[in-house]
Specification:
mainly alpha; two-stranded antiparallel ribbon; 9 helices; 4 strands; globular
Length: about 325
């Protein structure tokens, strides 16, 4: 696939064989869109524009690693057998990534990025959730181009035609058999979920990780259904596919996250940054240099509302012996 590059006047060695995979392009497009959406939502909350790049610098690579590790561990028969080439566990370009592994690895990367930038992890999660769901929708189009991960045969007009030969097609089916387009089901579910998450975030003012919790519930609920009609091989535990178990765990974590955070933080976040850290535009006027410690923010007032959830009020400071600040 290097011929068209050479027509642009770019010199490449004759023995180079550049292969561009549409699946990868779909995933990259999803990452770009998720980054833009997350950046706008974080900036709207008061974060420094572009700070999302410092976080995804960790989240994306670790997410990719996590997705590959999860796939390999949940498909051991494909990689671990007598005479197997263990280096193939690293051949991600041959296919084999798992969204749930990506979430685990990405969460670790996001934690590192948020610690370095000062952004609250839950604030970042809430800002990310709608864009992440949309990115997954774009990634599913890669399954269509790869002709993979389809469902059982169907007589419906919406059935998906799979080109032959394809090793995933069950033996004994008649030529021209149509299959359930599970990728399309998930795309529709994810897009509707984006609308739902944006509505919940706007109307209910969900914060403290509750939007991300809703994402885990929404995605887990849909995936637990779509996974049961796929015909690709999967490890089975107690009669249930691995990713169905992962989906149920996702739903449980989402519910726990919303319940716990609602009890811990009944009010709104003070801002996108952790205590003691703030950002303001270069041309903004600074009226105070006060900073609040974690101990002050953890204190409870008489009403039972934590200081972190209460409206921000300026501290009284003495100006004796100080020169007035010019503006």
């Amino acid at each position: 696939m290097t011929g068209w590059i050479r027509t642009l006047g770019l010199a490449l060695p004759e023995n180079w064989n550049l292969s561009i995979r549409i699946y990868a392009l779909c995933i990259l497009l999803g990452i770009v869109i998720a980054t833009i959406m997350t950046s706008r939502r974080l900036t709207k909350r008061g974060a420094e524009p572009g700070i999302v790049l410092d976080i995804i610098l960790w989240a994306v690579p670790l997410g990719i690693i996590g997705s590959r590790v999860f796939h390999v561990l949940t498909h051991p028969g494909d990689y671990f057998y007598p005479g197997a080439d263990l280096l193939k566990t690293l051949y991600i370009w041959e296919g084999g990534i798992a969204i749930y592994g990506g979430l685990l690895g990405g969460a670790l990367g996001a934690y590192i990025g948020c610690r370095l930038t000062g952004i609250r992890l839950w604030t970042f999660g809430d800002a990310l959730a709608p864009g992440l769901l949309l990115a997954q929708a774009f990634g599913r189009f890669g399954n269509y181009f790869n002709q993979e991960l389809f469902g059982y045969p169907t007589d419906g007009w919406w059935g998906l035609e799979i080109a032959s030969p394809n090793p995933a097609i069950p033996i004994g089916l008649e030529p021209g058999t149509l299959f359930q387009p599970t990728f399309a089901y998930e795309v529709i579910w994810d897009v509707v979920g984006v609308i739902v998450l944006l509505a919940l975030s706007s109307r209910l003012k969900l914060q403290w990780g509750k939007v991300f919790g809703a994402y885990l519930i929404w995605y887990g609920a849909g995936r637990s259904v779509f996974e049961t009609i796929r015909i690709d091989p999967s490890e089975i535990f107690f009669g249930v596919r691995t990713n169905v178990w992962a989906s149920w765990i996702s739903i449980a974590i989402g519910l726990i996250l919303i319940i716990v955070q609602t009890k811990r933080h009944p009010g709104l976040e003070r801002g996108p940054y952790r205590s003691g850290i703030a950002w303001s535009p270069a041309n903004a006027e600074v009226d105070s240099v006060d900073r609040y410690t974690d101990e002050e923010l953890r204190g409870d007032d008489a009403s039972g509302e934590s200081v972190a959830d209460a409206p921000l009020e300026p501290k009284a400071t003495s100006t004796l012996g100080k020169k007035p600040v010019s503006k």
